[in-house]
Structure to design on (593 residues):
């Protein structure tokens, strides 16, 4: 019986590896489909030829210079937002936590908007470091506020989400004030930014998002067993040897960095951080050994799918990605609220 | 062997426990009893340094745990909380978490083997790969006790382990706990509300009142005066079939 139980455990883990492999295939497939879709429809052979052979110059230009950066931006931003949401939900013990629902994205947007106006150029990528740095500070300020609220003895799931709504409203108001006093070019840039766009990030920006997201993933994966322990509550985690008082603020700071950098370069893209971990919980449960990488891949795949829908809905018009992800995320958000109420 | 000397803890200006002292030997089950708000749960969390006491010391096998790292403490003391947050993790993964204080990069074959052994001992074989949130209260509690056992602790702390369980599951869980204490030489400290369950399964009882130790005695020494003093209620102790029962007015 003992041997059988052991055999079962390895089989059980193999099923989770299979789920992870499936997500990797799904994300890769979504990249290829995304490369094929657009105003100029390309076949898989065209895409592969442009990627690896480069015989047709026009095809290569479309794939390498137009579509590939956009797809890389979607994959990197989706990855970053999803892992942030996954860890936030764990450390804040709150299934509704994500960079957008807790106001981190709005805080980062405010920071980025302030940097755009203060630089006076209206070109957010003119200064490569100033805008993400400002976005990071905005995101971190929001994180600090959430952390403070989470430490208050009376904080509950709903009060923390309401605090997130309040913080979002505060930063939205502050962004509006900045716009009121800004010149036309800066206002247009900020407004365009709030739509969210994957097309404006260049390779340098994409590399920044990817580097931060991969570093954050490494940190999260190192602590995967600690997050599993936190699933049982903070007292249980402490009794299992987890230094909760250090891990929680450190994890939130890394989440803030990750989501703030993604927002700084792609604009306000909501709900990916909320949706992806919940979808993956259905597949691999609350096991963070697999939930973190699966959420990352799911986030990338979801944002790529949303981007395809944005480009293909009314061609050649490209719909704002932020609006579409909100359409996707809002029903799930409502579902989670009603499910929580049902459980109580 | 655990020795607690002069332990105090306050929530702000309110003293939750004050100058609490007791000791318990290896292989014994110590029940902590008292009214709601007497400081039982606070005491038990202080014993594991989940809450750092304001004053006093906790020694396990002669070593003060205040000087140990959290991981070292977790290798000596395991804890089952009053209300566990039950996640969508499988029973096996949940129990495997008990090996976390011994992990290097992650769980190895020895850790998995330890889990298998505990799962078999607790009779959870058929539930090993079910989700924790799909189990009944009694099954969840057994899984929590299994996780505490797989930590291979010297001291096991249980905060109301029979809370919300039916009488059959109460007996099963307490019998498993007592056999673990006897067979593995673990010191078990359990907060209990059921006096009859405490009399049946505990070797010694520590009564708390208003945050302080009221009385520490063996189960055989408990009398109606002790219960009246600790709880403020009248009671009678009767012996039926060689076992002692508390009848309350």
């Amino acid at each position: 019986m003992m041997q059988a139980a052991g055999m079962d455990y390895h089989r059980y883990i193999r099923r989770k590896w299979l789920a992870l492999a499936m997500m990797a295939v799904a994300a890769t497939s979504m990249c290829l489909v995304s490369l094929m879709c657009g105003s100029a429809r390309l076949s898989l052979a065209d895409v592969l030829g442009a990627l690896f052979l480069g015989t047709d110059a026009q095809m290569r230009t479309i794939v390498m210079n137009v579509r590939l950066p956009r797809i890389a931006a979607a994959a990197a931003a989706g990855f970053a937002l999803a892992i942030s949401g996954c860890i936030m939900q764990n450390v804040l013990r709150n299934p509704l936590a994500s960079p957008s629902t807790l106001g981190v994205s709005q805080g980062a947007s405010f920071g980025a908007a302030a940097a755009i106006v203060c630089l006076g150029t209206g070109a957010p990528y003119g200064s490569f470091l100033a805008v993400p740095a400002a976005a990071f500070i905005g995101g971190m300020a929001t994180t600090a506020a959430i952390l403070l609220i989470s430490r208050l003895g009376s904080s509950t799931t709903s009060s923390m989400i309401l605090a997130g709504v309040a913080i979002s409203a505060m930063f939205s108001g502050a962004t509006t004030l900045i716009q009121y006093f800004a010149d036309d070019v800066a206002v247009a840039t900020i407004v365009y930014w709030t739509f969210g766009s994957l097309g404006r990030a260049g390779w340098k920006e994409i590399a920044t998002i990817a580097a931060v997201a991969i570093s954050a993933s490494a940190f999260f994966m190192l602590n995967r067993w600690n997050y599993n322990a936190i699933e049982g509550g903070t007292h249980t985690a402490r009794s299992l040897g987890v230094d909760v008082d250090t891990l929680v603020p450190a994890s939130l700071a890394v989440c803030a960095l990750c989501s703030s950098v993604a927002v700084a370069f792609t604009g306000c893209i909501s709900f990916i951080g909320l949706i992806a971990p919940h979808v993956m919980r259905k597949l691999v449960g609350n096991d963070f050994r697999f939930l973190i990488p699966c959420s990352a891949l799911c986030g990338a795949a979801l944002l790529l799918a949303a981007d395809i829908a944005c480009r293909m809905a009314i061609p050649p018009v490209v719909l704002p990605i932020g609006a579409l992800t909100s359409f996707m995320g809002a029903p799930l958000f409502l579902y989670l609220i009603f499910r929580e109420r049902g459980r109580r | 062997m655990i020795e607690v000397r002069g332990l105090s803890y306050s929530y702000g200006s309110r003293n939750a426990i004050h100058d609490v002292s007791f000791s318990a030997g290896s292989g014994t089950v110590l029940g902590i009893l008292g009214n709601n708000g007497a400081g039982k749960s606070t005491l038990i969390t202080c014993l594991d340094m989940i809450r750092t006491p304001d004053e006093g010391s906790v020694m396990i096998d002669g070593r003060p745990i205040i000087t140990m790292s959290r991981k070292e403490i977790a290798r000596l003391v395991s804890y089952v909380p009053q209300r566990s947050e039950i996640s969508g993790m499988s029973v096996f993964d949940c129990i495997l978490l008990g090996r976390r204080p011994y992990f290097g990069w992650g769980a190895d074959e020895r850790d998995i083997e330890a889990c298998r052994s505990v799962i078999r001992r607790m009779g959870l074989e058929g539930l090993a790969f079910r989700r924790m949130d799909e189990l009944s209260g009694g099954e969840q509690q057994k899984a929590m006790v299994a996780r505490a056992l797989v930590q291979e602790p010297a001291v096991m702390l249980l905060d109301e382990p029979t809370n919300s369980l039916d009488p059959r599951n109460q007996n099963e869980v307490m019998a498993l706990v007592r056999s673990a204490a006897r067979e593995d030489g673990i010191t078990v400290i359990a907060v209990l509300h059921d006096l009859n369950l405490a009399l049946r399964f505990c070797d010694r009882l520590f009564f708390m009142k208003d945050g302080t130790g009221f009385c520490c005695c063996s189960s055989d020494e408990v009398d109606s005066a002790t219960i009246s003093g600790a709880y403020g209620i009248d009671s009678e102790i009767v012996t039926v079939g060689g076992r002692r029962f508390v009848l309350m007015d």
